[in-house]
Specification:
The chain has helices at residues 11-22, 26-31, 39-55, 72-75, 117-132, 145-150, and strands spanning 2-5, 59-67, 89-98, 102-108, 136-139, 154-160, 167-173. The protein is of the alpha+beta class and 187 residues long.
Length: 187
């Protein structure tokens, strides 16, 4: 697996696997209540968002990719049926990096979830933050929160959203050497 900058040609694939990855996520259900009824419109949401972020200064979309010709490591990320597509690059997941402090989104293709892809994408983003000496902030759902916690994120704020039984946590990760600013709302 390697990480590279996404191209516009990747966006349809990214949008397509974002639908099954997030159709049951409580935050996306809150923001897109008709996603299950209109999955193509939900896909369109992801496609538009990717295009907007890619064109916006300060944002970078990157992808985790598996190339079946990479050797033994490629078997770790073969499809669930055990097959790999010889010579074919396959996108395992993606993340949107915001240069002024954040990973806006990290999404993993459902057939590659729970295999370290999300952690690898987040680690890459944390390294970018450390290099640029900026904290990483994001809002997450309960599904992804344990992963972010294991990666060293702490609670920055919690927002209660009408219709969701839990608050949506906003998390922050401070890279080494960056002055920690306390959140006065938490006190």
């Amino acid at each position: 697996m390697y990480i590279r900058r996404a191209t516009a040609l990747d966006f349809p694939t990214l949008a397509s696997f974002s639908v099954p990855a997030f159709i049951n996520d409580e935050l996306y259900q809150y923001a897109n209540p008709f996603a299950t009824k209109y999955p193509e419109a939900f896909r369109g949401h992801f496609l538009r968002r990717l295009k907007q972020r890619n064109a916006q200064p300060g944002f970078i979309v990157w992808v985790a990719v598996n190339d079946a010709d990479q050797g033994p490591a490629a078997k770790e990320f073969s499809t669930q049926d055990g097959n790999s597509r010889a010579g074919a690059e396959e996108i395992l997941g993606y993340a949107v990096w915001c240069r002024y402090g954040g990973t806006e989104a990290a999404k993993v293709n459902p057939k590659f979830q729970r295999r370290g892809v999300g952690a690898r994408l987040i680690s890459w983003g944390l390294q970018q933050a450390a290099d640029e000496k900026v904290p990483v902030t994001l809002s997450t759902s309960t599904v992804a929160e344990p992963l972010y916690r294991r990666m060293g994120f702490g609670t920055w704020a919690r927002r209660d959203l009408p219709g969701i039984r839990i608050g949506a946590p906003s998390l922050i990760h401070w890279p080494p050497g960056v002055e920690i600013i306390e959140n006065k709302e938490e006190k």
